[in-house]
């Protein structure tokens, strides 16, 4: 294993130990980050130590001690002995028990705390659980490193203000908290798969990182069908990445993708997982299992014409009832159009026009259905309107090209 | 020296129609030209940043006195076509080189491969004072 992969794997273990020992997640996280950076510099040159976890813990602990010593000196000068929060145990006693297999899970619950906006929870999770450096995270989000560092510091300050202890949430809160974790990982995956801004449609690193974190989460909670469902959804979506963009980076819609380029190994693993998840629960399937089931139906169709649109439509209907999310209704409209014709899809779209009428996805789906229905003028205007509102350069180019293509197709000759 | 090369929405000298009225292959050629140019500039170490902005329909203007609620409008101009469409930030040896790049951008291929001749606004980015002064 290359040193940087090993470091990322060990990061949450080390952070768990240091946080338990010193009772201060904020500083422990900084100290572990410094230890990881030190290791990234020295291990390639001097060789990976025999006990890499011990090495990292020793270096991180030394940083913590240095930090507390300088704090102590300052405190004496300022006579502010009371500034140590009562929840923090003395840093040099109480190493505490270290059930490290739970630490990754505890860290995920903590970093995806509902008090944090996703924009803060995602980078904090990447650093504290994923072991990425601030520089790597900043590059992934196209931000200067100091800005990303500030964002992570603010996130940790917000956690401190909430006073969340470093242990698993009480059992009656775990379901809600797990939902937050799944949501953050899902957003991270999407961030990598379709960037919300910028010239690169897909930033593979972030999707890969989301998959890695989802695998870690599943290792902690192997019996949870929604965790398994989310991992399956990611794999089944990621499998299509090689066919999703053309040589110039342009977006290729599902129906036009070369399906031979889909990653069959990921599809096979995703199918196994989604089957397992759906068989698992006694209750109704959760939203990630449903989305994974839909992705599975797409991935199993050798040709676009083989797609089971009626089943996909039915699954979107369940998902729509469960979430009440109008974006799901958009997808259901597209599936209904494929199963029953464009008029059925357009009728469904009308039900969310009030909520989504200005959204570029709504305009784009509607334009596709109008094109399917033979209304070239309406389709062209729709693609134009969607392009004007798109927030992703690749999507914008795709929509402009669609508008031009509909116009060209409808010209005589 | 850093320069901003700015492109606005708006009429161009060649009378080129908006992109959605081009032939699809002309759009493709135009996009490929822009990407190739960015790659060339990046390869020469001259490209600092290149971004396109979302359409003027989404532009908002915010005015605030810092006390009362800010006033947010769609803009003071009924003709929103004068808004910025995108920019390149380049770091070059001379103003002349910035003009050269701007000329390349302006001559990007349009319908039937004919140059669009879009006006490119070239603005020097103010730098820190020279330490010797």
- Sketch the topology of chain A as an H/E string, one letter per element: HHHHHHHHHHHHHHHHHHHH
End-to-end Cα distance of chain B, whole Å, is 17 Å
Could you spell the SSE succession of chain B in H and E letters? EHEEEEHE
Could you estimate the helical fraction of the residues of chain A in percent? over 70%
| Spans where pLDDT lies below 50 across 5 or more residues of chain A | 80-98
Radius of gyration of chain B: 18 Å
CATH superfamily of chain B: Dimeric alpha+beta barrel
Count up the helices of chain A: 20
Note the main sheet of chain B.
4 strands, antiparallel
As for the number of domains of chain B, it is 1
The biggest sheet of chain A, with number of strands, parallel, antiparallel or mixed sense and barrel status, is:
none
Which class of chain B in CATH terms?
Answer: Alpha Beta
Describe this structure in words.
The complex is a heterodimer of chains A (about 425) and B (about 130). Chain A is mainly alpha-helical and about 425 residues long. Chain A has a domain at about 1-85. Chain A contains 20 helices and no strands. Chain A has helices at about 5-20, 25-45, 50-80, 100-110, 120-130, 135-140, 145-160, 170-195, 205-220, 225-240, 240-245, 265-280, 285-300, 310-325, 325-340, 340-350, 355, 360-370, 375-390, 395-410. The termini of chain A are far apart. By secondary structure, chain B is an alpha+beta fold. Chain B has one domain: Alpha-Beta Plaits, CATH 3.30.70. Chain B is built from 2 helices and 6 strands, in the order βαββββαβ. Chain B has helices at about 25-45, 95-105; strands at about 1-10, 45-50, 60-65, 70-75, 85-90, 120-125. A 4-stranded antiparallel beta sheet of chain B has the order 2-5-1-6. In chain B, strand 3 and strand 4 (about 70-75) form a beta hairpin. The relative contact order of chain B is 0.32. The model of chain B has no long low-confidence stretch (mean pLDDT about 85). The interface of A and B includes residues 389 and 400 of A.
């Amino acid at each position: 294993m290359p040193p940087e992969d090993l470091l990322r794997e060990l990061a949450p273990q080390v952070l768990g130990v240091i946080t338990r020992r010193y009772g201060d997640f904020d500083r422990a996280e900084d100290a572990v980050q410094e230890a990881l950076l030190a290791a990234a510099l020295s291990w390639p040159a001097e060789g990976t130590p025999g006990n890499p976890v011990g090495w990292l813990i020793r270096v991180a602990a030394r940083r913590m001690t240095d930090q507390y010593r300088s704090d102590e000196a300052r405190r004496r000068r300022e006579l502010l002995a009371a500034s140590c929060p009562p929840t923090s145990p003395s840093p040099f006693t109480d190493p505490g028990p270290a059930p490290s297999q739970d630490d990754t899970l505890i860290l995920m619950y903590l970093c995806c705390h509902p008090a944090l906006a996703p924009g803060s929870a995602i980078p904090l999770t990447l650093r504290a659980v994923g072991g990425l450096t601030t520089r790597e995270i900043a590059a992934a989000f196209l931000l200067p490193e100091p800005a990303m560092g500030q964002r992570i510091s603010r996130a940790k300050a917000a956690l401190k203000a909430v006073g969340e202890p470093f242990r698993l949430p009480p059992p009656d809160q775990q379901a809600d908290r797990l939902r937050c974790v799944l949501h953050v990982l899902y957003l991270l995956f999407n961030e990598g798969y379709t960037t919300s801004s910028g010239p690169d449609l897909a930033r593979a690193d972030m999707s890969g990182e989301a998959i890695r974190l989802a695998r870690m989460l599943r290792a902690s909670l192997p019996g949870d069908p929604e965790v398994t469902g989310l991992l399956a959804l990611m794999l089944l979506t990621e499998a299509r990445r090689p066919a999703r963009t053309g040589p110039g980076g342009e977006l290729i819609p599902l129906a036009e993708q070369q399906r031979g380029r889909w990653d069959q190994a990921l599809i096979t693993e995703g199918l196994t997982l989604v089957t397992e998840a759906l068989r698992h629960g006694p209750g109704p399937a959760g939203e990630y299992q449903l989305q994974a089931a839909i992705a599975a139906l797409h991935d199993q169709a050798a040709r676009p014409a083989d797609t089971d649109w009626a089943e996909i439509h039915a699954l979107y209907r369940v998902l729509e009832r469960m979430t009440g999310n109008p974006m799901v209704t958009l997808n259901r409209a597209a599936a209904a159009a494929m199963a029953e014709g464009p008029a059925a899809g357009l009728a469904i779209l009308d039900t969310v026009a009030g909520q989504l009428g200005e959204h570029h996805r709504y305009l784009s789906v509607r334009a596709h259905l109008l094109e399917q229905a033979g209304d070239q003028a309406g389709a062209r205007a729709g693609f134009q309107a969607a392009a004007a509102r798109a927030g992703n350069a690749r999507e914008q180019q795709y929509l402009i090209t669609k508008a031009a293509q509909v116009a060209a197709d409808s010209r005589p000759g | 020296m850093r320069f901003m090369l700015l492109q606005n929405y708006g009429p161009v000298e060649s009378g080129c129609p908006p992109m959605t009225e081009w032939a699809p292959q002309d759009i493709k050629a135009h996009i490929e030209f822009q990407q190739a140019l960015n790659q060339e500039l990046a390869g020469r170490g001259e490209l600092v940043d290149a971004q396109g902005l979302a359409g003027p329909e989404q532009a908002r203007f915010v005015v605030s006195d810092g006390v009362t609620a800010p006033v947010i409008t769609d803009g003071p101009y009924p003709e929103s076509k004068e808004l910025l469409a995108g920019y390149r930030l380049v770091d070059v040896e001379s103003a002349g080189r910035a003009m050269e790049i701007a000329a390349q951008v302006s001559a990007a291929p349009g319908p039937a491969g004919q140059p669009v001749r879009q006006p490119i606004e070239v603005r020097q980015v103010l730098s820190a004072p020279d330490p010797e002064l």
